[in-house]
Design goal:
By secondary structure, the chain is of the alpha/beta class. Helices cover about 30% and strands about 15% of the residues. The chain has two domains: about 1-100 and about 290-310, NAD(P)-binding Rossmann-like Domain (Rossmann fold, 3-Layer(aba) Sandwich), CATH 3.40.50; about 100-285, Rossmann fold (3-Layer(aba) Sandwich), CATH 3.40.50.720. It has eleven helices and twelve strands. The strands form two sheets. It has a seven-stranded parallel sheet with strand order 8-7-6-9-10-11-12, sandwiched between helices. The chain has a five-stranded parallel sheet with strand order 2-1-3-4-5, sandwiched between helices. Helix 5 (about 100-115) crosses helix 7. The longest helix is centred in the last third of the chain and has 19 residues, at about 290-310. The radius of gyration is 22 Å and the shape is globular. The two termini are about 15 Å apart. About 35% of the residues are buried.
């Protein structure tokens, strides 16, 4: 079997992830990056393709009739035309729940950075601010305890559950808005409430739901207006859940206190992003999922998925391909 990896640079830093397990599955060809215009050309003779963000469209699959399998380096599969894959008999498999710990960790990194003012104080020390004071402790930026504050989680799947557990350990009150409250009924430390109540009562609002037609721009001018003026919005899910122009207006206008996001609607970030130059926002470049242990776990599962497909028992399959 010929296996082609299309966009390895999106999942590895200077070759820090081994592809040995994948190489044992067949003849391996690896590309760091792939443009939309030459995807079909690069995989024309491949039976299996491993990719992250490269789009596998109907046109690509129709030009590569030997293609049997698409293995995704991640959980989302919107970059693949699933209907075409079903029709053309191409199996598509993803990697669910591999980054829950990492994203929950990053979520709280953003929260702690805001409440402890870590980056602000560190920058002040780096510029010599502490040397100018006669006291042992340099005040100037108010910090706050998390204990006793309320965090509202929009969505409570694998990542949301880990965030809820961390929040409870900090002594926070945990509210959850979940479209199916029964799915979080086993969590004794959380309280399910309507979205409007969560927005109104929370000191921290953290997004952990998928992007779909029901959640697209769920956070907008109307929902932002329901939040406390002291609230911080955190998004480590998908950028499209937030209307970025409305968020920029809310931050610049003092409707909410701050925001911290790891995802944007357009990635990489464009120079004219609505969030460029906005006050009281922290932006990280979609790295919550990317600790080395997380990426090692990801590729272990990518290889396991391919081996299972080759053995005739696909796992983590997201479609229903017709047999050919």
């Amino acid at each position: 079997m010929k296996i082609t990896v299309l966009d390895m640079d999106t999942a590895a830093i200077d070759g820090d992830i081994s592809l040995e397990d994948l190489a044992e599955c067949g003849s391996l060809c690896v590309y760091g990056q792939t443009g939309r215009e030459n995807t079909a050309e690069l995989i024309a003779d491949s039976e299996a393709v491993i990719c992250n963000k490269t789009r596998i469209t109907r046109d690509v699959m129709e030009k590569c009739r030997g293609l049997q399998y698409v293995g995704l380096m991640g959980t989302g599969f919107d970059q693949v035309d699933i209907a075409a894959a079903d029709e053309l008999g191409v199996t598509v498999c993803n990697v669910p729940a591999y980054s829950s710990d990492a994203v929950a960790q990053h979520t709280f990194g953003l929260i702690l950075n805001y409440f402890c003012k870590i980056s602000e104080y560190a920058a002040d020390c780096a510029s010599g601010g502490w040397t100018e004071k006669q006291y042992f402790s340099r005040f100037g930026r108010k910090t706050s305890e998390l204990s006793g504050k309320t965090i509202g989680l929009i969505g409570c799947g694998g990542i949301g559950r880990r965030v809820a557990a961390i929040a409870a350990a900090f002594g926070m009150n945990v509210l959850v808005f979940n479209r199916d409250p029964a799915r979080v009924a086993d969590l004794s430390a959380v309280r399910c409430v309507p979205l409007e109540q969560l927005l109104a009562e929370s000191d921290v609002i953290s997004i952990h739901c998928p992007l779909n037609e029901g959640t697209r721009e769920l956070i907008n001018a109307a929902t932002l207006a329901l939040m406390k003026p002291t609230a911080i919005l955190v998004n480590t899910s998908r950028g499209g859940i937030v209307n970025e122009a409305d968020l920029a207006a809310a931050l610049n206008g003092g409707i909410i206190a701050a925001a911290a996001v790891d995802v944007l609607t357009e990635e990489p970030m464009s120079a004219d992003s609505p969030l460029s130059g906005v006050r009281n926002i922290t932006i990280t470049p979609h790295i919550a999922w990317a600790p080395v242990e997380t990426r090692e776990r990801l590729f272990q599962t990518v290889a396991e998925n391919l081996r299972a497909f080759m053995a005739g028992s696909p796992r983590n399959r997201v479609n229903h391909p017709k047999k050919q």
